[in-house]
Amino acid sequence: MHRVVITGLGCISALGKTVPECWRSTAEGKSGIAETTQIPLEELRNKVVAEVKGYDPTAYFEERDFAVYDRFSQFALIASDEAIEDAGLDMGGELSTRAGVVLGTGMGGMNTIEDSYERMFRQGVKRVHPFTIPKLMMNAAASQITMRHGIVGPAFSIASACSSANHAMGTAFGMVRQGQSDVVITGGSEATITLGALKSWEALRVVAPDTSRPFCVDRKGMVIGEGAGIVVFENLEHAKARGAKIYAEVAGFGMSSDAGDLVMPSAEGAARALRGALEDGGLNPEDVDYVNAHGTGTPANDGTETKAIHMAFGEHAKSLAVSSTKSLHGHALGAAGALEIIATMAAFEMDLLPPTANFTEADPACDLDYVPNHARAMRVRAAVSNSFAFGGLNAVLALRRFD
User: Fold this and answer.
1) Label partner for 53 (CA 20 to 30 A): which of 161, 193, 271, 274?
2) What is the CATH number of the domain that holds 47?
3) 169: domain range?
4) What is the mean pLDDT of the chain?
5) Catalytic-role residue among 149, 167, 238, 294
6) pLDDT digits (tens, 9 = 90+) for 8-25
7) Is 294 a catalytic residue?
8) CA-based torsion, 364, 368, 369, 372: positive or negative
9) Residue among 22, 162, 216, 366 flagged as catalytic
10) 374 is known as an active-site residue
């Protein structure tokens, strides 16, 4: 069994187009939530989203690339380029066979699907682009990363709704820990700010009309986000041999299923995943200082997650700092866990806890320390990052400071 460390980070989200930009916005408690610019506002009842501001794909890609790069693949490539460069990795030679890609996404090429439907059913065009299927398939982004960087080891995608990125990173963790790969490029990417997708979320009645304020008594739901977070998981011996910078150690991974309701979360199921991550990482509850919560801002999630944290941590729950960065970058679905890992790395790299933005007054059922509105200086020894998805699919990563 090998120890696994994080040696590279890449991010594009509503908070910025690079990791430093995202961390700066996080440190300032600057939410990226605003009215959408991608869809005519008169088409929507709930108009706020967390979209990548001022995104110009021509700044990153050539015109011919757009035939095969959906927006979610574009985000994944931008973030993976940053992460691989940050790690100082040359993916050529022998490493190309010892490296892999495991990427999470909940929806895949949603923009491509809707563009095709628009052409056929509204514009009356009889044919769609011949690369429609390769562009929209859920493994497209993972495959594009392998081709861009010459990675010929294992590569695949994982889809488990809002837990996709954490399941992907947990799988990547296992691959490196067991010696199947020396390096895995992992995380998640999502781009679902489309008319059809937003109308579908509206129909489910879980979307906020104003903003995301997790754990607050006046919360009204979640806000859809987009973007990609990519991290490099690497065998510790491999990283040390090449003198790599190490952000943190991946200590453990826990997962569970509620086997209950398709949309209503279970505190017991979430607590099992939390306990599993701690046990897998050899961590006692008292070793953990910070929890990056799933924290969607929906009435059902926040109280249930608070209960799960109490169940998993016992009395120590009262001493934990807990925050939801979805209040900053929105709920990016299959990319959410990856954006949250990037935010959690700020706690190790900058000794700075991300805040829960837009905080007003805590719900009586939410009785923990939610780091309201302002980032907090604090040295974190260990942290966990939660993802609890529709379908009752739970995935929790445990991280440890590397000294």
Assistant:
1) 161
2) 3.40.47.10
3) 4-241
4) 97
5) 294
6) 999 999 999 999 999 999
7) yes
8) negative
9) 162
10) no
d(CA 137, CA 126): 21
Q: Does residue 208 share a domain with residue 296?
A: no
- Regarding whether 97 and 42 lie in a shared domain, the answer is yes
Asked which of 217, 241, 265 is the last residue of a domain, the reply is: 241
CA 399 → CA 88, 185, 367, distances in Å? 22, 17, 24
Please indicate, yes or no, if residue 247 is contained in any of the structural domains.
no
Question: pLDDT (tens digit, 9 = 90+) per residue, 133-146?
Answer: 999 999 999 999 99
Last residue of one domain, picked from the residues 197, 220, 241: 241
Question: What pLDDT score was predicted for residue 403?
Answer: 84
Q: Which of 238, 310, 329, 331 is catalytic?
A: 331
Distances in Å between the alpha carbon of 296 and those of 22, 111, 211, 283, 345?
19, 23, 11, 26, 20
DSSP 334: G
**What total of structural domains would you count in the chain?**
2
Its pTM stands at: 0.97
Q: Report phi then psi at 133, rounded to 5.
A: -65, -50
Instruction: Judge if 200 and 305 occupy the same domain.
Output: no
Counting other chains too, the contacts that 314-317 makes at CB distance below 8 Å and 24 or more residues apart are 314/285, 316/285, 316/286, 316/288, 317/285, 317/368
**Are residue 180 and residue 278 in the same domain, yes or no?**
no
